[in-house]
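We treat protein structure as text, and this decision shapes the records that our systems exchange. Such a record has a labelled line for the sequence and another for the backbone structure tokens. The record that follows is passed on verbatim for readers who wish to inspect the format:
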Amino acid sequence: MTAIQITSPEEHKPSLFLDRGKAIKSDEKVETLMPSIKQSVPVTFDYDVHFTTGLFKPENHLLARVIANNSKTPKKVLVVIDQGLLCQWPTIVEDITVYAENYNQQITLVKKPMTVAGGEESKNDPIWVEYIHQAIDEVGLCRHSYVLGIGGGAVLDMIGYAAATAHRGVRLIRVPTTVLGQNDSGVGVKNGINAFGKKNFLGTFAPPYAVINDFDFLTSLEDRDWRAGIAEAVKVALIKDPDFFNFINQNAKKLANRSMSAMQELVYRCAKLHLNHIANSGDPFEKGSSRPLDFGHWSAHKLEQLTNYRLRHGEAVAIGIALDSIYSYLKGWLSEIECQRIVQTLQDLGFALYVPELTEYIDVPKHPKSIFKGLTEFQEHLGGELTIMLLQGIGEGVEVHQVDLSLYKQAIVLLQEKQLAEFDPSLKCS
């Protein structure tokens, strides 16, 4: 269980402007009719993240128990499923329907499970949010009803946004079906969709009611999706836990060859680190400009856009991790051996670490299709000053507010040369 406490600022400062528009200097007194009211609102969110197999098998009581939560009457549930699951799990709609019938004292399905577009398509077209809103209105869900979202991380982002903006928040139970969803995005407090060509431009901070990770769903993933989610585990290990990175490094080839036991441990450890950060960072809803868990993401978000989402999110993050690690090495913060270990681990996991979009408009940083435009967009998304996470060592992150574009250009060239060297041994560095 993860408890998250949010406290508002201790003091509300008076306006800095007079009625006539004259700016007030910091040392001037402001006339007030009566003392300001100071208000602190502590709010605690509790939600459990469960790990299981065979979630919709009749003998598995977990989902029914989570939904019932000691209630004496059945709870209304609207099920929304990622269309991409239907090919690999063609009986999932029937399985859920039968499960609900078996547990009719706890669950009332308000309609046949709905399906929505999979992947980034679900976040790029606002029609899917409207589709869910219409269903919530049609079946009469209230704040104590449930939306049960089943799918990959992108789909759960969209479903979560729809649930959070209906009635100012309908209870959401997430069932992530990808590695990325189970170890990272599905266990967090953020929801969102893309707009104006920008990743997650519209969104909410709304913790789920519960998260249920069913490892069986991972068995049907394509190799790309299996691999892509591992990038987020590499990310959190590099900034928070060197022992976890050692585990990934030592088991990289097992993970690439789809060892389920190695993957289960990776998912669990990554999710635990992620949840610990949300609960104990002091800024779970990102009121400041710092977002340590987005190490490697400023370029990843831009690369997704530049490649028209040809790259999976995790594939883009892997490139971003390699880029920021090499930059950290060029800055003199990360040793050559550490940098090589990071890049080699990513390659052992099966990631390609260069795409042509990295070098397009590299000398025109303000061009909309330049990778460096991602820095500006990242700053806009967070607000305040630019804040990105880099490395001072494996397991030791450092936040910076300025970057040297010439060093980033060098880092990109090194990634390009390394990619070429895989095909031409004469180009390999000694």
